[in-house]
Design goal:
Strand content: 25-35%
Distance between the termini: 31 Å
Structural class: alpha+beta
Length: 220
Amino acid sequence: MLPADTPENPPNAKLVESKQKWAEEGRLMTGNPAPRADRLPPGQREVKNWPVLDLGIQPEIGLDQWELTIDGLVENPTIWGWAQFKSQPPFTDVSDIHCVTAWSRYDNHWEGVSARHILEVVKPLPEARHVVFHSYDGYTTNVALSVFDDADVLLAHGWEGKPITTEHGGPVRVIIPKFYFWKSAKWVNRIEFVAEDRPGFWEERGYHNEGDPWTEQRYS
């Protein structure tokens, strides 16, 4: 599968340029942080559909080809094919999601494998402090290990009782509900545990290194 940054399969340059301009202009910022008790973060609007956003690439990965590598600073580096992934203890969760482009969708029903189960399997080393997600389209994004180690974080293969479609990051995507949704990498194929923080695709292009919607961490 070609990564996003190869000449044969580049990201949509106009899309990337447009989103970088949003960061430069501080678009959608209200300057009014909200308590987490408020369900809708500042600057967001609720939607009933699930908008599609990507880099202009939607890789088709057959289940017989899909593979997830979990490595880096861990005791037990692991590679799961589809059958091994689906054989892990099932995990379900219901959460809201918030996109930096200002939409939020409530009560999403997810099915997959919990982040905490993954941590139990691979056992991060004491020096591991951050996680980098890698995707089949070449995309990367980063979170602190403490963020990944949360009760509602998972690798999801199901949404609303059906397999997650390709356009939404299937067969497997990351779900980190408490952060803006660019942190929930689509088409994930590697989870890398590292000591030093390593900003990803959008973080290197003006977006916040963390991404808390309630404090409007949209841009750096």
